[in-house]
Amino acid sequence: MLGKLCAVICQNKNLLMLITAGIYVLALFAAFSNSVIIFSMLISISAIFLIIRNVLPLKYIVIWVLIFYLGILNTTLRLKNTDDLLNLAPVNSQITGTIISIPQGMPENKPKFFFNVNKIKIGSLEETFKNEKVLVTINSFPDNPVSFEGLKLYNSATLQGRLSVPFKAGNPSQFDYGNYLRNFNTYAVFYAKSVQILDKNLPPKAKIMQSINDYREKVLNIHSKYLTSPNLEILGGIVFGDDAISPPANIKQSFVNSGLLHILAASGMNVAFIYGFFFIIMSLFKIPYKPKIIIGMLMVVIYTLMTGLGASVIRAACMLLFVLAGKLIDRDAHSISLLSFVALLMLLYNPMWINDVGFQLSFIVTFGILIMAPAFVRMNKILDYLVSAVTIPIIAQLWVIPVQIFYFNNVSVYSVFANIMSVPILMVLSFGGFISSLLAIFSPIADFICKTFDFVLNPLLNILINISDFWGKLPHASIQTTHPAIYQIIIYYVILLCVSGLLYKEFREKYLRKLLAGIISLALLLALTTIHITNSSPEITVFDVGNADCFLIKTPANKYFMIDTGKSGYNKGKSQAEIIVLKYFKDTGIKKLEAVIVTHFDNDHSGGTADLLNNIKVGKLYVNDLNHDSLSAKKVYSAVKHTNTDMVLAENNQTVYDEKGLKLTNFITTGHKYDNDNSIITLLEYNNFTMLFTGDAGINSLHAIQNNIPHNLTVLKVPHHGAFTGLDRELVKHMSPEYSIVSTGENKFGHPSMYILSLLENSQILRTDIENSIRFKLNKDGFKILTYDIRRRKYVQK
Question: What is the pTM of this model?
Answer without folding.
Answer: 0.86
